[in-house]
Amino acid sequence: MAKKVEKEEKIEKTEKEEKKSNRHNIEIKIEGDSWKDALEKAFKEKQKTVKVDGFRQGKVPRSIFEKKFGKESLYLDAADKVVDEAYIKAMADSKLIPIVKPSVELKDIKEDGCVFTFTIITKPEVKVKKYKGLNVKPKKIEVTEEEIEHEKGHILEKYTELVLKDEKSKVENHDIAIIDFEGFKDGVAFDGGKGENYSLEIGSNTFIPGFEEQLIGMKAGEEKDLKLKFPEEYGAKDLAGQDVVFKVKVNEIKTKKARELDKDFFEDLGIDGVDSEKKLNEYIKDMITHRKEMENENDYIDELLDTVAKNVEVDVPEELVEEEVDRLMERFEQQVRSQGLSLELYYQFSNSTEKDLRNQMETEAYKNVLYRLMLEEICAQEKIEVTDKEIEEETEELAKRYNVTKEEFLKEFGGDQYVKYDLEIHKVIELLKELNK
Fold it and tell me: Which of 7, 262, 324, 356 has the greatest number of C-beta atoms within 10 Å?
């Protein structure tokens, strides 16, 4: 009993020392039967594979094992077996609620037991000094004739016809040259430098500097050696800054022919109700308006949250920021993979490293964590609640949107508590918009 009291006193003292920084160091000692059992389990596992002269594998007695390898050889394996038990004790004794996964350090280990130190980060104190009457308003949306014409130009570009130029014609800027090419460095072809019947738009800057420019003036059927130099910052290190020669043959030359806004064009366009330039302009205006409304709403919310955040006092735990960086990195990797690349290739093409990317994401991660803590505090102050009915309706709506069952969605999303949290945050943001008109 005396030992238990002593441990409780130690925990209480540690909490008082760390309370200001919401960082709590909790010491837990595993000893007695728990430690003996862990040592025995560690030995049983070692016994299966260890070889000692005079004994069959798996049959060496523990006394012989310890004499040959030392008792200390079991300590770390035994500690691995009791760390979960120590964590449960730390959480139960301290009654703390961590906001990130606690870190653990093996502080001491010997024959009669081991001591773990768990660093538990709890939610910091958040003071939102002002979040009402900030007079933050969304900007007005306007769609100009120039924007409509610009967007219409993109649509026409998409449906542009490619017409084969005659044999006497030469490659000009904005033409499409159908080429065969192969690259050589010091007379030897290099990997990734060959293509056949490749459609290259002149002026698109798809190839390295100088390549497209040297095709201008060539005729269909003409061959040419292009003497070029790879940029110093090129992703492939064996080619960066190197002089090379591309052997190129122009097979065909095509030019773009603008479409007329006639019946055939609108049939190809395939938009219900759009059969004239007037209706196309109306459609484009609605499309731009919708896009601007979404962008404007996002910008408005960002400005509103940024304004509120300037009135917040909080010591944001670096562990929370690091965890958010991990989440952003995972999301970025998914985006890169959806484009058919790996992170390794991305680092090569962008001439960067994982450390560079993580550093770039730290600012966004810090802002995300700050906003989250801020909104949670306002939610508590305003006593915002979400009903079971709202959670049910939102879950069904999201499951329908992602074309999965309700059960599949909850399993993927992490449960209805996450749906509840998202609804709470949404309600807080809507409240802030009302309070700051």
Answer: 324
Q: Which residues are registered as beta bridge partners of 170?
A: 219
Q: Which two tokens stand for residue 310?
A: 């300037």
CA distance 392 to 161: 51
Q: Are 25 and 14 in contact, with CB atoms under 8 Å apart? A: yes
**What are the angstrom distances between the C-alpha of 246 and each of 185, 186, 239?**
9, 11, 13
Answer yes or no: are the C-beta atoms of 183 and 193 closer than 8 Å. Answer: yes
Locate all alpha helices (DSSP H) within 137-276, ordered by sequence. 145-158, 211-215, 263-269
Nearest to 427 by CA among 378, 389, 388: 378
| CATH fold for domain 161-257 | Chitinase A; domain 3 (3.10.50)
Phi-psi region of 221 (alpha: psi -120 to 50; beta: other; left: phi over 0): left
Residue type, 320: L
Give the least confident one: 15-19, 35-39, 102-106: 15-19
Q: Which amino acid is at 207?
A: F
181: which 2 tokens?
Answer: 């090419």
User: How many whole angstroms separate alpha carbon 370 and alpha carbon 357?
Assistant: 20
In angstroms, the CA 44 to CA 40 distance is 6
What confidence category does residue 7 fall into, taking pLDDT thresholds of 50, 70 and 90?
A: very low
2-122 placed in CATH 3.40.50.300: no
**Angstrom distance (rounded) from CA 436 to CA 432:** 6
Q: Which residues pair with 110 in a beta bridge?
A: 113
Distances in Å between the alpha carbon of 155 and those of 162, 164, 174, 269, 284?
15, 22, 17, 9, 10
- List, in order, residues 6 or more apart from 168 with CB less than 8 Å away: 219
Nearest to 151 by CA among 282, 294, 299: 282
pTM of the prediction? Answer: 0.68
Is the model's pLDDT at 42 over the cut of 80?
Answer: yes
Contacts of 257 (CB under 8 A, 6+ apart): 160, 161, 162, 163
- The structure tokens listed for 132 are 């009402």
- Interhelix angle 75-94/32-49, nearest 10 degrees: 150
Q: What is the pLDDT of residue 18?
A: 42
288 has a pLDDT exceeding 70 = yes
Q: So what CATH class is 288-435?
A: mainly alpha
Q: What is the pLDDT of residues 187-231, one digit of tens each?
A: 999 988 899 999 999 999 889 999 999 999 999 999 999 999 999
Amino acid 8: pLDDT: 33
CATH 3.30.70.1050 residue window(s) in the chain: 2-122
Q: Are 220 and 251 in contact (CB under 8 A)?
A: yes
